[in-house]
Design a protein that fits this description.
With 250 residues, the protein is of the alpha/beta class. It has one domain: 3-Layer(aba) Sandwich (Rossmann fold), CATH 3.40.50.150. It has helices at residues 20-32, 36-43, 48-58, 76-85, 98-108, 148-158, 176-198, 201-213, 217-226, and strands spanning 66-70, 90-95, 116-120, 133-139, 159-170, 231-237, 242-248. It has a 7-stranded mixed sheet, with helices on both faces. Helix 2 runs antiparallel to helix 7 (176-198), helix 3 crosses helix 4 and helix 7 (176-198) runs antiparallel to helix 8 (201-213). Mean pLDDT is 87; it is low at 1-5 and 7-14.
């Protein structure tokens, strides 16, 4: 880590990345990392970047602040923040898949300095001090965390008072007809496309299963409140096929 940014040591024996579940998920994302961005564009119909921009809008003015991107992948959320704030923001991107972090380092190159720090870390044990960041982003990542309650408590811990979090996840549309089409697409077509592009159909079958296992929006908002967030909201996108979850620490 870097002295320009808040950091605390973490007991590695407690880190979930060291258990079998974490190792399996990391291995899967390492395998599909070379084609992950392309697959996100294809599977979301190119809408995922627009959703990230909308999510960043909800964070308010971050000039002079510090933002943390959890499950940062190759850095899509970080890129949106850099494009908007340039040198007037400090960014931290963490992921537990080294393949994804390698892509982010290639993407940002010389920017990975005092204004952009990338590191391997677990969402459930963030290597950051209490009340140390102004904003948190998570794009299509919270559903892959083994203990979402613990991860949400960690995000609340590291946010400064008044800090905000945004998370994007696929969602089951409320309209019955659209929901049936979306679920069929996510179960059959998405793994088929993923298998062709990445050569790893099994990984995209897992992503479908993780989507099915994710709680409904009302339940997840309740989990956010339980973690400490007094203000929580859900913003459906594209007929409810995705949701931006918002929380604010008061």
């Amino acid at each position: 880590m870097n002295n320009h940014l808040p950091y605390r040591s973490v007991n590695n024996r407690m880190n979930i990345m060291d258990n079998k579940h974490g190792a399996r998920i990391e291995s899967m994302f390492n395998r599909i990392s070379p084609r992950y961005d392309l697959l996100n564009r294809v599977i979301s119909g190119g809408r995922d970047l627009a959703w990230r921009k909308k999510a960043v809008d909800l964070l308010g003015d971050l000039h002079g602040g510090t933002a943390l991107d959890i499950c940062c992948g190759s850095g899509d959320f970080l890129q949106v923040l850099l494009d908007r704030y340039g040198t007037d923001i400090k960014l931290i991107g963490v992921d537990f898949a080294t393949g994804m972090l390698d892509l982010a380092r290639l993407r940002f190159g010389e920017n990975t300095s005092h204004r952009l720090l990338l590191g391997r870390a677990d969402a459930m044990y963030l290597p950051l001090a209490d009340s140390s960041v102004n904003a948190i982003t998570i794009g299509f990542g919270i559903r892959n965390v083994a203990d979402r309650d613990l991860a949400l408590r960690e995000t609340y811990r590291v946010l400064k008072p008044g800090g905000k979090i945004v998370m994007i996840e696929p969602s089951s549309p409320p309209n019955r007809f659209i929901r049936a089409l979306f679920l069929a697409y996510f179960k059959y077509i998405s793994p088929f496309i993923g298998g062709i592009i990445s050569g790893d159909r099994a990984a995209y079958c897992y992503l479908h299963d993780s989507f099915i296992a994710f709680p409904p929006p009302e339940e997840f908002l309740g989990m956010m409140k339980k973690a400490g967030y007094p203000i929580v909201k859900a913003y459906p996108q594209f007929m409810g096929t995705a949701i931006i979850f918002f929380g604010e620490k008061s």
